[in-house]
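Table S2 (continued). Query chain:
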Amino acid sequence: MKLRNIAIIAHVDHGKTTLVDQLFKQSGMFRNNQVVDERLMDSMDLEKERGITIRSKIGSCVYKDTKINIIDTPGHADFGGEVERILHMADAALFLVDAQEGPMPQSYFVLKNAIKHNLPIIVVVNKIDKPASRTSWVIDQVFDLMAELDAPDEILDFPVIYASARNGIATEDENDLKETMVPLFDKILDYVPEPKGEKDLPFQFQVSNLDYSSFLGRLAIGKITQGTLATNQEVALSCGENETPQVFRVTKIYQFISNEYDVIENAAVGDIIAIAGVEGFKVGMTVTDPAHPQYLPEIAIDPPTISMTFLVNSSPFAGQEGEFVTSNNILDRLKKAALSDVALLVDNLGGDAGFKVSGRGELHLSILVEQMRREGFEFQLSRPTVITKKVDGKVLEPFEELTIDIDESVMGVVMEQLASRKGQMISMDPIGENTGKLRLIYQIPTRGLLGYQGEFLMATKGRGIMGYIFLEYRPFSGDIKTRKHGVLIAKENCKALAFALDKLQDRGQLFIEAAEQVYGGQIIGKNAKEDDLTVNPGKGKKLTNMRASGSDDTVCLVPSLKLSLEQIIAFIDDSELVEVTPKSIRLRKKILVESMRKK
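Corresponding output:
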């Protein structure tokens, strides 16, 4: 059977996973009466809920006696490291771009990597059914972007497919909209080259990704670049220039059928497989023939930019809602996460100091926190901090290139917000003609983007589009004050009473409801002023025999402010912690007793 390996790359939410669904369905992989989940490749609950791809996945389908391995990659900047590694396994790329938005920040990043690997690129203009679709402008923007990235002529001469993945449409003529993906399948067979490599040379396989499950164990995923592999074959793992290679025996070989693992006995050059039985492997290492070792250059992995400290829960409510609460439970789970996520680094700080977990960004770390919470873990989190470098005595911090699409009417508010976060505008251009929309490009410290997503959506009434990519390390840009409000702190352990909350809501926005149990030192709201205020949410009304017509009005409480996990993590300052349990997310001061806080 012939073979094609293709990666699907795009900015977040441009329709990669939906397109893969249609390719699977229309290749005849499923029975007509078979129930197939939407966004089949998004296997995690969080991926389906949030509508984003978090981990790269590999699937396959068969079309005209050709097996097509399809690599679905994340589009969010926090998971950009996955894209770069995955492209080592692909022989071409499908570049998806939204028919209205055009190329966005992550588009630049993924295209840059595809061109660096000299991969042929098929441009798929997706969502052509949008009312504001502008396909000609989008294709011009893609060409300009490729030219800016110094793409060779053969890549610049890219074929274009117009698609509406949601409706199962792919066509070379945007006026001929038939519900079929055949034109895209045919273009893949015609334009994507077969994998290169010699079958008769010694075995060579580079680890491009990792996976782990309690059932299959730890798996190394990659493409065979030369030779063949069989079950129980001995292989050698590269361990460094001056170290003796480790020799192992391969216990299982898996290929990808649809979105599942399938055991096979043999694999040959060009196959994308997962192997078990090899211990101690890392991304970038080479697995090869021990008798004739041939090692490939290691794949560089981007360094993490943000870290948080995970601590054992020490609040008065500790152990009441979680199943796994000890430091050993938390450390084991974090180490397990690091086995399959090479962008995650875990350091044991020792004693009660907790565990420092470093990752790509807020979303990257908050996904891990939410997974652990759903699995029954209970712990506390510190404020996220940016990882700085020291070069020649100067402190350097990471900067991002931020691209935002907004209505002209909210331009002033957004520019003011970004200026307070040390953002520097690079360009401002209108989007299309008479649309009333602008595209602004900023260079901004990573610190300035912490917690900004929610503020941006509020300012733009949910209509703004925001994306960013890592730019470089630059000199530290000074203090950034992102929180303009103090907090309301509970004075003692009590049950919140509606009477007390009615009086407190004049002081600011509350995070809690009436009848909720709180403890001393817990943050129960946002103060309208800059300073912190200790209050008593359990103060009841004094009862007397006297009644008056105007003093016994019904209490009317404003609904409490519900923040998402990312918003809560971004809200706290250095003197505060987030308490995470399977049932609750609470904010608290590190020092619970008011008199000790004052000292």
